[in-house]
User: Fold this.
Amino acid sequence: MIKFLSTTLAAAVVFAAGLALPTPAPAETGIVIMHGKGGKNMKKAPTQILARFLRDKGFIVAAPDMPWQASRIFDKTLEGAMAEIDGIVAELKSDGADKIVIAGHSLGANAALAYGARRDGLAGIIAMAPGHVPELWASRFADDIAKARAMVDAGNGNDSADFSDINQGRTTTFSMAAKHYLSWYDPDGEAVMPKNAASLKPGTPLLWIVGEKDRMADRGEAYAFAKAPAHPKNRYEVIGGGHGATPKKGKGNILKWLKGL
Assistant:
């Protein structure tokens, strides 16, 4: 009782003196925004547009080149990419971020889910037009997976070879280390979104946002979103437009969700 009166009296003295009582500083939110596969981080890129929008709203934002950028295409395994994100998060924290949100577009969304499944303490995950579905490509890329696995098993995982890829219906060939291909394309491996969504750390809210013209929208909530641990701030949103436009067209939805964290 005496302690309570003393605290009250001290507050009254401060108020009478015309001084404001100190209030806790608002937590600063840092956001990592990752581009899609083969992306080029030009000014007009969808993730760069979103990054500028969120910076203007007061967020601390990093939108760097990632290991699947056009000039780097899969120069690291998924776990190597996770370590790279760790470094980006550390920089955001050094810039004053108290809370961290990991966001990504297309393959970047895939990586964001993987990161959320492996790291505690995140304020949220944003999966924009999620892409890269190795478990659905199992028969299409069976020969490539077998080749990569044979190279890894023979101790030649660091050697490069040509491997197949598909991106929004377009097939192509990339040259990369066999262990990198296996990491990203193994249908039972590290980059399977339903598995990573189900493994998100408890307490990590998920925003899954996809364009109505995106083929991922046809898979609905059941594909991966519904497998995430329950959280009152989990949101599944379908907006207008297609795959590439989601970070730009969805920026208002993303801002609203961020403000609600």
Q: What stands out?
A: The chain has two domains: 26-132+191-261, 134-189. Residues 78-94 form the longest helix (17 residues). Residues 1-25 have pLDDT under 50 and may be disordered. Residues 51 and 61 are 6 Å apart (CA to CA).
